[in-house]
Structure formats: C-alpha cells, structure tokens
C-alpha cells in the first residue's frame, strides 16, 4: 500500500516558496526534513519536487537506469553562461558527451600527478602570504582558499595566472563569478513577475556574465595565437577529438567550457575544494584532538621536509579528515534527478514517470541509521581502518553519482590534501573568535560564513594577543591586524620581568580575573601580556611566570582553551615545559560533581609532569559557593607574594595606570555602538507569564535573530545587557558628572574598557562595567585605604570579617558602599578599575526552530532584591533580567546563539521516551523540546511519550504556559504534564516539589526508564540534587539495590542518557 508523501501547508499561487529561506535554502530543507522525515514534497511555484533525506532513499535514487540527472533551477540559470557545458548540459545534448569523453582522460591519475608542480606553486603563494602577514593578521580562510583554488584550476588547466595573491581584492573574474552564482541561486527561487521588476539586479548579473565570457574568450584566443606544448585541459579542448565520433569542440563550446568551467570546472574544482578546505579547517579547530593527531601524522611522514606527492599516500588520517569534513558539510549539498519510469520507492512511495527529486546529500550524510547517534559530530576515525569501505553503498556522495558525477574529483582531492597538509606542517592555527560556531552561506555551493582565523609560524617566537572570550566582544573584520593590548612600561626605564597571563573563559569570569592580574602586574614589578590559552598552543614561555586562569564546562575546556588543553595532553613532549614557571587558578561549579575543576587540575598536573615548576598550589573557586570571589582574592594575594620573592621585584603603589580625561562636555548624547549590526537581534514580543498575584515575575520574550543565525532546541541565547538606568544614574550622580559628558580613557595595562577614543559617561557606565557586582574582599581593602574616617574603616573591617553574610548574600556593591560612606574618596579611574567588565548572560532558548527558525524565545525570571538598610536604600536589580524585562518590541539587542552540550538536545530517534524535570524558568528548554515533537507529530510522524515534571508555586501564580501552549500539547497527546505546586500541593496529588511528584509517579517514571528514556534536568542546584536523590531511591526500590550500587547505576544513566542545565 502506497504511503502519502507529506507536504507543508501551501499558499495559493506561491505554494511552499515562502517556507524556504532565500539566503540559506539548505537550512530550510534541513528543518523540513527534521519535521517531516525521510521524504516530503514542496510546491515551488507550481512545480512539485520530492525532497529525499535518508541514505536508504538516496541509495535507491542512485540508479542511472531508473533515475536520470536533471539540471535544477539554480544550475539551469548558469546555462546562460555555460550553455551545454559539462555540469549544465541536459542528458540529451551531444556536446556534453563529447566534452566528457575528451576530458575524462585528462583527469586520470597520471595526468593529475603531472599537475603537482603547478599545484605546489600556488599553494606556496598562500603559505607565503600567511607567513608574511604574521599572527596578528585576521585571515578569512574562505576568501584565501577561493583565491588558491581559482589560481590552481586556471594554472593547471589553462596555464593562465590570475595572480590572486598579488592583490588585496579578489580578481574581477572571481568576484563576478561569485556574484553571478549567488544571483543564479536567487533567480531560481523568484517568481518571474518579481524577476522582471529587478532590472538593476539583472543588469549586474548580465555584466558579470559578460565579464567572464570576455576573459574566457581572451584565454582561448591567446592560446590559439600562442600555442604551447602542454597536455592541459585547454589544449585538450582545442585540439582533441572525440574517440567515438571524431568530432571536436568549436571555439564557442570551448569558451563556454572555459567560462562555464570557470563556473563549472571552477565550480567543482574551485568552489568545492575551497569549501572543503574551509570546512576542514573549521572542524579541526573545533576538535583540537583531531588537529593534534593530523599534525603528528604530517610531521612523522615529512620529517620536516617539503611535502611531496609520495608523502600524501602515507597520510591516511589526512584522507580521513577530508572525507569526514565533506561528509558533514558536502559543499554541493543537493542534486536533482527525474524518474524515467513509474515505480514504488522503497516499497512505500508511489512515483510517476517524470517526477523530479531533490536529493539532499547533507541530510543523508547525517543519517543516524547509517552514521550512528554521533552522526552530527566530526569523527575522522569513522573513515579509517576499512570502516569507510564497509559503509552501505552510496552512503557518501559529496561528488555526485554515476556518469554525471564530478570528473574533477581526483584533481580536487590531490589539491586539498596538499594544501591542508602544508598548512598543518607550517602553522599553528586558532580561531580569531574563540566562540565561533559554524554558520553557512549558500550560493550554488556552501561555505562557512564569517569564519576568521589567525596563523602563527610554528617556529616563531612567542606572541600573545588578547582576544575577548565572548564573540559578542570579538573583532570581526578580516584582512586587518587585530589591535594588540599595550604592555606596561617600567616607570624608571629599568626592565621588568615579563609575565604571561592566560585564560580559558566562555562567560567572561576567568577572563575578568586574568585581566585584573594583568592590570595589577605593573604595581608588582612585572610587564604583563594577556591572551587566551589557545594562543599559547605550541609555545613555552621561560622568560617570566605564566599565570593561568581557566574553567571547566561540564568537564570540557572553554572554547578558547580547547586546543591548548589537547596540546598539553597529547602534543607536548615529556620534557616540553622545562624552564617554565607557572601558577593555575581554576573556576568551577560543584554542581557538576564528577567534573568539578577537571580542566584546571589537568592543566596544573600536566605542566608539572612535563617539566614545569609550580610556583604555588593551584587555586580553586566554586561559582556555586558563597566565597568564589573571596577565594580568588586570597589566591591572588598569595601569588603576588610568591612572585615578588621569586623574581626579586618590589610591590609598590603606582600611579593610576588608567587615566580619565574629560574631552567634551556637551548637551547631546553621542550614539555609541559597541558592536556590528550584524549581531543585533530584534525584540518582537515581551509579555508577562505570571499572574498578578505571583510573588515573582517571569516573562516570555521573542527575538528575530540576525540573518544567517540558526539554533537547535536546547541551545542558549547569550545576551550582552546594559546596566539598569537607575543604577547608571546613581553612579554618574555620585561622581558629579553629566550623562552627556565625554571622557577619553587611556591605560598602560590590558583593559576591556574603550581606550583612546571619546565616549560619553552614560555609555561607559551603561555597557562596559558591572555596577551591581558584589564588592570583592580586595575591593573592600582598597576602599579602606581611601578613607581617614575611623567609623568607616571599622564598618569595612566588619564587612571583611563577615564577608559572605554581609556582602555576598546581600549583594552589596562598590557603588552601594561609596553612597553609604561619602568620606571614601575614590577617583573615577579607581572606581572603573575596581569593577569587572560587563559579561554576557546565557539563557536557555524556549522554542524549537521547527516552529520558527528565524525567531527564538526566552522564558526568564526577573531578579529583584530588597533594600539593605545602612548599605542600599533602593532594591537590588538583576542586570540582565531587568534589561530584558524593559525591552519593547522593535528594540535591537546584542545577542548570539551558543550551542549547549552535545547531550542537551532532543534524541534523534523520535520514538525515544523523554523525561523532563524542571522548576520555574527551568521550563525553558523543555518547552523547546515539547514544541519540536509537537511539530513533528503535527506533520504525521510517530513520536514517543514525553513526561514533564514541573515545579512552581501554584496554578494561580506561576504555572507557566498552562493555559495556552502546554494545554494544547497535552490535548494533542504530545506531552503528559505532572505539576508540583509548593503552595497548593492539594492540587498536585499532595506533592510540593518536583522530586515529590517523581516519587508519587515512580511507576510511570520507571516504565519510561526501562524503555530507554532520556532524562533532562533544568533548574537550581536544589532541584537537581532533589531529582538525583529521588531517582536513586527509585532504583533502590525497583531493583532491590544497596545505596552504593544504585549511585553507580544512576551515575552511568546520567552519563549515557541524561543531561542537565543547572543555574542559580
């Protein structure tokens, strides 16, 4: 019996066109595949196309006898340039067959090997460029790989030099080709009436086409008039004869195959290869253990000698890296075929002759049934030791299939191997923005978007450059040197010992600690340089102490420390750190008991094991505890004591290294944009979720995401907030300033403040410092030195003596203390130095991209605290939550999507039961999970059971979404909600808390557990601890286990089937 092929809802005349993102159609195709499954149909302006997404169906369509390649809309537009060239010809056009038979031998193994010297020529130009520009230069690898592959295909196939590396801009031919291909993709998805109105766009498209044809015609004419003895593709096309028909190609056909092959040869051999190299570089940087393994293979094989063709055959891991990169991101992700006869596909779907199919190789390459549950992860090992050869037939198709597959694959592969091996042999690479997560840009092929790196010669001297840990603060411009931080100079002209301050930080805390040390270094006699841990990869500093501040994130290093940690473990030799003296402070959270302080401990122990000298015991701060900042203050004081003795320096009070100069006192406010508009999202909705009687407020916010930004259910939205206006006014008033007064800051130490340019006080206080951060013990000590009043000194000493209860718990800030004690004379520069920099806040996204891929929602608790008599006469306001609470629709917000842990996403197998435990705004990610399955069920797919255990106060206060979304999903059988009302337990089966409801419903929980359910927890540490305890108790009761065995089993369940997100 035939199964209907699902289709999204249509719009009259347009069909499903509006369901496709015009900038990134592949993203829309992927979301539709996630919602509708292995096959769905779209009505594209009246044309019905079946989209195939599973490896099983792709395998069936890979039969040249039943299905034939067709030229889809976007490639059909390219025919205006390439005509019946190799990649744009229809099946019945004779020139394709002639060109195919002529050129196939030219791409044979022997001929490709003969192109080695030309390939190396161009490769050396890229290596030379990166070497000469140095480690401060921000590289766009996609641009440089585009230059490289364009120049390579032109030199090898036509003996023509574009000389792309001798110009700051891309050659006109390349720019024209890129714009032409992008417009071809857009034209294919526009209604003809719309296209007819876009006269200027059409004129540009025609001009690009003409430029490429003119250049190609000149190349052909030049070769006709100046023939050379070289067996390249151009000579083959000019003088070769088809062995079957005896025919050759006329100049018009040759020009089309040159211009078309500069968008077909060049599209396959150039676009495909540049995309492959870009994606491979990204995945290696994101997976430093793979980078280290590849570097070792290259070094072992080459032994420091120039790479030869023979070397490549001895590099299986290099081959595996490229295969895996192009599996995850096939640059030509979709191909089209047509049914040659009526058939039943996979025994389920009836297909009529002439039906067109779009084969989504991107989805098929991520098929969990073929590639496993880790199909979305970069694992080159799956391509080694015969595993690749053992894959089901046609599971890997990045170069197409059959007679119409890419004939330039051997060329592209040899070039990619040479270039990647040469880069790895020569450079240490790092992200320019350590937090970068892959975004895609799409023309006819795919490439990474906004992807920038830096490259340092592996033999270079040590060089550090400070890069913010948050990409919201990172520079974006490619092709420009990043601005170095200014190092402190000795006041008396005498040299100071160097100090290297390294940090690994995702949220900014470790970075702020590191910058505080770097700022204070001058007063202790050191000349400090600050940078990320990744920027130190492969380098050993022996001319001064190395201070490392780093964190663990569920046992993993920070984004900007991953490469360094992998190098420490796997790349560094046993005596690598002889002569290095170091100190480590670790930031962690005891809520993650198994992985608490894992990375700081590992770094500390490996450095010592491999020759380093530990200057003082590793410091440790628990972000979940009450003495986090106090512990750092104590460790920092001990560190300076040790360092001044070790290096014979003198700690002394120095003049302020931060100076503030008033440059303009005006009556108008300057607009100060701190970040590019490309990362600005727009508020589209902000509403209160709680009832008027609720004791706390929770809100639902929706944001239109920046163009090209995507997310998954379970990801975070990171927000860069500003301080509440009331707080900013208090700070400005305390210093007797006008909000519109402008100042210029300068500093001889590293700083996150805006230096050496005018900025108004309003912008400075609003966006650059944390005004409400509780004062640290060090802050209290500094303030005590700035007053002569005995009563004030006594008060400050009392706060120090009872720091946790008097300062931390009550959230008493430096500003609070200054307002309460006017006798403390603090300059604006000292005040700014005491405050930590503004940091991003992460919130779990509470929606699914299947509901709306361009919008993401948050579910947020608004944080407010009571006044504290004697210290703060006004309520405490949480910075980020109050910033969000006051946003109005239409306002722009600086934000970014940050991926959650690999486990904190809905399972790929829709039949897997899901158990969700949460309280309050911890409902956020669970709402996204439920919404995702609701959309999948709505599309006709079978989904497994979902159980939501949700804790709140009462149905009359804060039972979030209970009257709309949750009610609808319960009604539709998507989720079973089990509430626990702490102030109305009689309405929740007598259960006050989540753990009580779990125990009450333990039979259902154990049934889901035995069926392979996945467990998700989101909430406070108290919620997580309660859930863990009750689950262990259930195991003890159900399985008759003792306490130790139940703990062991539950720990394994958490590792294999569980994921948690704990917040305070």
Automatic annotation (TrEMBL):
PANTHER family: BIFUNCTIONAL CYTOCHROME P450_NADPH--P450 REDUCTASE, NITRIC OXIDE SYNTHASE-RELATED. It comes from Heliocybe sulcata. Its cofactor is FAD; FMN; heme. SUPFAM superfamilies: Cytochrome P450, Ferredoxin reductase-like, C-terminal NADP-linked domain, Flavoproteins, Riboflavin synthase domain-like. Keywords: FAD, Flavoprotein, FMN, Heme, Iron, Metal-binding, Monooxygenase, NADP, Oxidoreductase, Transport. InterPro entries: Bifunctional_P450_P450_red (IPR023206), CysJ-like_FAD-binding (IPR003097), Cyt_P450 (IPR001128), Cyt_P450_CS (IPR017972), Cyt_P450_E_grp-I (IPR002401), Cyt_P450_sf (IPR036396), FAD-bd_FR_type (IPR017927), Flavodoxin/NO_synth (IPR008254). Pfam families: FAD_binding_1, Flavodoxin_1, NAD_binding_1, p450. This is Bifunctional P-450/NADPH-P450 reductase. Heme binds at residue 406. In the N-terminal section; belongs to the cytochrome P450 family. PROSITE patterns: CYTOCHROME_P450, FAD_FR, FLAVODOXIN_LIKE. Residues 676-906 form the FAD-binding FR-type domain. The keyword Glycosyltransferase does not apply. Residues 473-497 are annotated as: Disordered. Residues 473-485 have a biased composition (Low complexity). GO terms for cellular component: cytosol. Residues 499-640 form the Flavodoxin-like domain. One of its GO terms (molecular function) is aromatase activity. The keyword Flavoprotein applies.
């Amino acid at each position: 019996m035939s199964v209907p092929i699902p289709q999204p809802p249509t719009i009259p005349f347009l069909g499903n066109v509006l369901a496709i993102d015009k900038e990134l159609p592949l993203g829309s195709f992927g979301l539709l595949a996630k919602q509708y499954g292995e096959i769905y149909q779209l009505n594209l302006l009246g044309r019905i196309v079946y989209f195939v997404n599973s490896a099983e169906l792709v395998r069936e369509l890979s039969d040249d006898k039943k299905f034939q390649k067709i030229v889809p809309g976007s490639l059909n537009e390219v025919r205006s340039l390439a005509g019946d060239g190799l990649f744009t010809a229809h099946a019945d056009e004779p020139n394709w067959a002639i060109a195919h038979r002529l050129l196939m031998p030219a791409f044979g193994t022997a001929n490709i090997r003969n192109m080695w010297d030309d390939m190396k020529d161009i490769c050396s130009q890229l290596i030379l460029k990166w070497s000469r520009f140095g480690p401060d230069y921000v590289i766009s690898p996609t641009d440089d790989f585009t230059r490289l592959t364009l120049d390579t295909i032109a030199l090898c196939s036509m003996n023509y030099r574009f000389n792309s590396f001798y110009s700051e801009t891309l050659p006109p031919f390349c720019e024209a080709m890129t714009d032409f291909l992008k417009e071809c993709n857009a034209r294919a998805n526009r209604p003809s009436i719309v296209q007819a109105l876009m006269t200027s766009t059409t004129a540009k498209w025609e001009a690009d086409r003409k430029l490429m044809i003119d250049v190609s015609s000149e190349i052909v004419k030049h070769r006709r008039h100046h023939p050379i003895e070289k067996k390249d593709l151009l000579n083959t096309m000019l003088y070769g004869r088809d062995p079957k028909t005896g025919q050759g190609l006329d100049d018009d056909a040759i020009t089309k195959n040159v211009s078309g092959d500069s968008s077909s040869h060049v599209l396959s051999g150039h676009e495909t290869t540049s995309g492959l190299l870009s994606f491979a570089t990204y995945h290696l940087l994101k997976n430093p253990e793979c980078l280290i393994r590849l570097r070792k293979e290259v070094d072992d094989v080459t032994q420091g000698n120039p790479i030869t063709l023979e070397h490549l055959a001895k590099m299986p891991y290099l081959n595996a890296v490229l295969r895996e990169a192009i599996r995850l991101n096939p640059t030509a992700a979709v191909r089209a075929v047509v049914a040659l006869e009526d058939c039943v596909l996979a025994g389920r779907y009836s297909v009529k002759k002439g039906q067109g199919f779009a084969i989504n190789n991107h989805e098929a390459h991520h098929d969990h049934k073929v590639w496993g549950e880790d199909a979305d992860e970069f694992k080159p090992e799956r391509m080694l030791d015969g595993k690749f050869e053992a894959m089901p037939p046609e599971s890997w198709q990045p170069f197409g299939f059959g007679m119409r597959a890419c004939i330039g694959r051997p060329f592209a592969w040899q070039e990619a191997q040479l270039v990647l091996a040469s880069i790895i042999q020569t450079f240490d690479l790092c992200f320019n923005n350590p937090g970068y997560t892959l975004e895609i840009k799409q023309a006819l092929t795919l490439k990474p978007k906004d992807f920038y790196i830096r490259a340092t010669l592996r033999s270079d001297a040590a060089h550090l450059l400070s890069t913010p840990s948050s990409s919201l603060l990172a520079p974006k411009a490619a092709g420009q040197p990043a601005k170095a931080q200014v190092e402190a100079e000795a006041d008396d002209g005498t040299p100071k010992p160097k100090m290297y301050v390294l940090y690994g930080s995702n949220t900014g805390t470790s970075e702020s600690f590191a910058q505080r040390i770097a700022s204070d270094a001058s007063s202790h006699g050191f000349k400090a340089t600050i940078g990320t841990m990744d920027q130190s990869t492969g380098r050993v500093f022996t001319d001064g102490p190395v201070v490392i501040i780093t964190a663990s994130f569920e046992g993993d290093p920070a984004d900007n420390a991953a490469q360094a940690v992998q190098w420490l473990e796997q790349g560094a030799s046993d005596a690598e750190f002889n002569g290095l003296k170091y100190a480590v402070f670790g930031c962690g959270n005891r809520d993650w008991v198994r992985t608490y302080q894992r990375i700081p401990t590992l770094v500390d122990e490996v450095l010592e094991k491999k020759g380093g000298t530990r200057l003082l015991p590793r410091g440790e701060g628990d972000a979940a505890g009450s003495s986090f900042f106090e512990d750092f203050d104590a460790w920092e004081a001990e560190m300076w004591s040790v360092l001044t003795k070790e290096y014979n320096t003198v700690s002394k009070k120095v003049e302020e290294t931060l100076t503030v100069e008033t440059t303009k006192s005006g009556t108008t406010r300057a607009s100060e944009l701190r970040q590019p508009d490309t990362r600005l999202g727009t508020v589209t909705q902000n509403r209160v979720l709680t009832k008027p009687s609720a004791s706390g407020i929770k809100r639902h916010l929706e944001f239109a995401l920046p163009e090209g930004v995507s997310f998954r259910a379970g990801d975070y939205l990171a927000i860069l907030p500003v301080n509440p206006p009331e707080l900013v006014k208090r700070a400005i008033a305390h210093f007797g300033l006008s909000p519109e007064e402008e100042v210029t800051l300068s500093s001889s130490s590293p700083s996150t403040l805006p230096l050496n340019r005018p900025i108004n006080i309003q912008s400075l206080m609003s966006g650059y410092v944390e005004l409400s951060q509780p004062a640290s013990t060090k802050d209290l000590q500094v303030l005590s030195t700035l007053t002569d009043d005995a009563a004030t000194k006594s008060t400050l000493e009392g706060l120090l003596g009872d720091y946790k209860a008097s300062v931390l718990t009550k959230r008493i800030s430096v500003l609070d203390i200054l307002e309460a004690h006017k006798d403390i004379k603090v300059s604006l520069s000292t005040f700014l130095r005491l405050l930590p920099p503004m940091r991003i806040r992460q919130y779990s996204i509470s929606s699914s991209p299947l509901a709306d891929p361009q919008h993401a929602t948050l579910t947020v608790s608004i944080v407010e605290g009571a006044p504290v008599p004697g210290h703060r006469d006004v309520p405490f306001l949480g910075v980020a939550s109050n910033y969000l609470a006051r946003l109005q629709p239409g306002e722009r917000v600086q934000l970014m999507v940050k991926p959650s842990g690999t486990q904190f996403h809905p399972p790929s197998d829709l039949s897997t039961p899901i158990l969700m435990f949460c309280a309050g705004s911890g409902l956020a990610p669970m709402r996204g999970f439920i919404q995702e399955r609701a959309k999948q069920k709505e599309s006709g797919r079978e989904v497994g059971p979902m159980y939501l255990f949700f804790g709140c106060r009462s149905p009359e206060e804060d039972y979030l979404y209970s009257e709309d979304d949750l009610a609808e999903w319960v009604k539709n059988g998507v989720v079973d909600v089990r509430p626990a009302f702490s102030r109305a337990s009689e309405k929740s089966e007598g259960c006050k808390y989540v753990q009580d409801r779990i125990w009450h419903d333990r039979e259902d929980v154990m049934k889901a557990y035995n069926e392979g359910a996945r467990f998700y927890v989101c909430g406070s540490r108290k919620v997580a601890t309660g859930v863990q305890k009750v689950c262990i108790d259930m195991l003890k009761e159900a399985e008759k286990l003792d306490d130790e065995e139940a703990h062991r089993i539950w720990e394994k369940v958490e590792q294999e089937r569980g994921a948690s997100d704990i917040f305070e």
